[in-house]
């Protein structure tokens, strides 16, 4: 087709938009430009480092077997290691070989494992769950989770497993909680074991982003790295006519021709992220000044149909948390961890310490989690949801803690006092403070998120986590990829068949299995 596609943002939504434009709309790769502020595109699914400095990844998203748009995308992308196997099939194969089978999902202070066969829900808790799932979104509005559940609900095994799997806080949106309950109702029988969650062979950057980048580059897509789009000119509220692109202190105006289109990833959940080290905590930054947020605010001013960005980025203390990536270079840690969990390394899934002041959760990854990672090295990751309290073993809040202090806190909860000195000497941990990581969960009302393409716009679409898609759930890779497919359909390929969202809540068998679990 004629014209050019300009994609603002090189995260998974932007990359997927380019891939669908090539595959489904038959655009030549040379007709597509992706503008990204980072040297390496990939957005929130980033990962890097090495065994000497320590590996680091800000986080990973949970993958469901029902993420149909994601797997549709990856079905035509060669995997990281084997060009004869798609990235999708590599995920399926690795999940079959190394799926999660958690045996220590919740752990008490004395090291004993909580009986997760009982979700601990009272009659009032179950009634509140059912009411929320059956309510309309319009009737929920901007209510919080705390507004719709009794206090006892937040003490249950169900909530402890649910919130640490999906990163919900009590002050987050009840509307988003409703969507999650309906979208993931099929997970109720597997909340403890996590056996239905899909795994990538390496971290998600190397297993998803890198293969996609290679494919796009081979197709001739142009990447403009290290630049920011500071404005989108919109004429007569119908067409985007130019982009303003800043680089090295200079700004360039790029006119959009008659047949040109633009796709904008508005907002970023990892904007303003900062890294610490073993010796110091991660510094606090203001993510709302990030280029994508600033651009969204600029074009939304006076245009309510473009959404209300301040709803999501206006209160970073309510949307932030800290994660850390640890690299431990001794076989002893693997031995101790496998003895503690009674599961092979990487098969355990999430481990939440229920008596932790930070509500600390960790996950040890199968080796190698990074290409080239030495065989005796374990890369593991953790985060806390109650960050503002002093730790049990470190008298600091989580944002105040260095990587070494996070290691000491974790080894304390693992009850490894006899081995702590050796493990500390053989480990490095890199903290990451993310002020807007759960901003997409902030309480919202209709209109706060723009549609993929506002009805009056001819050549501009929105993608990413802050776009409205009925029924689907934010904070997932699937959401970003689905918005990308919808954007390509809206702008370039009107007859594109977008796979329907999995709606297990409409299946009586799914309801029955979930109800049985809720009664236990």
Low-confidence stretches: none
Cα distance, first to last residue?
57 Å
What percent strand?
A: 15-25%
Strand order of the largest sheet: 5-13-14-15-12-16-11
Please give the radius of gyration in angstroms.
23 Å
Number of helices: 17
Overall CATH architecture of the largest domain: 3-Layer(bba) Sandwich
According to CATH, the fold-level topology of the largest domain is FAD/NAD(P)-binding domain
Mean pLDDT: 95
According to CATH, the homologous superfamily of the largest domain is FAD/NAD(P)-binding domain
Number of strands: 17
Estimate nothing, just give the exact number of structural domains.
3
- Structural class of the secondary elements? alpha/beta
> Which sheet architecture does the biggest sheet show?
7 strands, mixed
Give an account of the 3D structure.
The protein has 520 residues and is α/β, with parallel strands linked by helices. 30% of the residues lie in helices and 17% in strands. Strands 5-13-14-15-12-16-11 form a seven-stranded mixed beta sheet. Strands 6-2-1-10-17 form a five-stranded parallel beta sheet, covered by helices on one side. Strand 8 and strand 9 form a beta hairpin. Helix 1 (12-23) crosses helix 9 (204-218) and helix 1 (12-23) packs across helix 16.
Briefly say what this structure is.
This protein is α/β, with parallel strands linked by helices. Helix content is 30%, strand content 17%. The protein has 17 helices and 17 strands.
List the helices and strands and how they pair.
Layout (H helix, E strand, L loop, with lengths): L4 E4 L3 H12 L8 E5 L10 E4 L3 E4 L10 H7 L12 H12 L7 E2 L15 H12 L2 H4 L4 H4 L8 H10 L7 H10 L20 H15 L3 E4 L2 E8 L3 E9 L2 E6 L5 E5 L8 E2 L15 H10 L9 H4 L2 H4 L1 E8 L2 H11 L9 E3 L6 E5 L13 E7 L18 H11 L6 H6 L1 E8 L25 E4 L13 H15 L16 H11 L2
Parallel strand pairs: 1-2, 1-10, 2-6, 5-13, 10-17
Antiparallel strand pairs: 3-4, 7-8, 8-9, 11-16, 12-15, 12-16, 13-14, 14-15
Helix pairs in contact: 1-9, 1-16, 2-16
């Amino acid at each position: 087709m004629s014209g050019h596609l300009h994609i603002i943002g090189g995260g998974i939504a932007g990359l997927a938009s380019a891939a669908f434009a090539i595959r489904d709309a038959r655009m030549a790769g040379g007709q597509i430009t992706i503008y990204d502020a980072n040297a390496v595109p990939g957005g929130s699914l980033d990962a890097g480092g090495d065994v000497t400095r320590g590996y680091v990844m800000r986080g990973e998203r949970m993958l469901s077997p029902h993420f149909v748009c994601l797997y549709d995308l990856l079905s035509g992308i060669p995997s990281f290691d084997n060009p004869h196997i798609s990235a999708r099939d590599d995920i399926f194969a690795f999940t079959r070989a190394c799926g999660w089978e958690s045996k220590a999902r919740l752990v008490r202070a004395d090291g004993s494992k909580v009986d997760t066969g009982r979700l601990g829900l009272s009659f009032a808790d179950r009634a509140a769950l059912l009411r929320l799932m059956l309510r309309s979104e319009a009737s929920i509005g901007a209510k919080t989770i705390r507004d719709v559940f009794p206090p006892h609900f937040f003490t249950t095994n169900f909530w402890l497993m649910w919130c640490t799997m999906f990163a919900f806080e009590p002050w987050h949106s009840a509307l988003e909680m409703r969507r999650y309950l309906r979208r993931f109702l099929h997970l109720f029988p597997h909340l403890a074991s996590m056996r239905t969650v899909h795994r990538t062979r390496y971290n998600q950057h190397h297993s998803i982003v890198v293969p996609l980048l290679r494919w796009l580059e081979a197709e001739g897509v142009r990447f403009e790295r290290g630049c920011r789009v500071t404005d989108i000119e919109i004429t007569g509220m119908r067409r985007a006519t130019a982009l303003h692109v800043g680089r090295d202190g200079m700004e360039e105006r790029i006119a959009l021709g008659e047949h040109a289109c633009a796709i904008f990833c508005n907002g970023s959940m990892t904007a303003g992220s900062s890294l610490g080290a073993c010796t110091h905590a991660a510094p606090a930054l203001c993510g709302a000044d990030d280029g994508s947020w600033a651009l969204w605010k600029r074009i939304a001013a006076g245009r309510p149909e473009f959404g209300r960005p301040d709803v999501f980025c206006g209160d970073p203390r309510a949307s932030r948390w800290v994660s850390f990536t640890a690299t431990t270079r001794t076989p002893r840690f693997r031995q101790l961890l496998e003895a503690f969990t009674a599961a092979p390394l990487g098969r355990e899934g999430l481990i939440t310490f229920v008596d932790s002041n930070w509500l600390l959760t960790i996950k040890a990854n199968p080796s190698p989690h990074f290409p080239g990672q030495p065989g005796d090295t374990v890369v593991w990751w953790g985060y806390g949801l109650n960050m503002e309290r002093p730790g049990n073993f470190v008298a600091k809040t989580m944002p105040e803690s260095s990587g070494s202090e996070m290691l000491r806190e974790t080894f304390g909860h693992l009850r490894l006092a006899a081995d702590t000195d050796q493990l500390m000497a053989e480990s490095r941990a890199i903290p990451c403070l993310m002020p807007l990581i759960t901003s997409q969960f902030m309480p919202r009302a209709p209109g706060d998120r723009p549609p993929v393409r506002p009805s009056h716009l001819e050549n501009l679409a929105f993608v990413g986590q802050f776009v409205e898609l009925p029924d689907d759930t934010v904070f997932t890779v699937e959401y970003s990829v689905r918005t990308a497919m919808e954007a390509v359909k809206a702008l370039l390929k009107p007859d594109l068949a977008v796979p329907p969202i999995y709606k297990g809540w409409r299946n009586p068998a799914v309801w029955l299995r979930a109800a049985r679990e809720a009664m236990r």
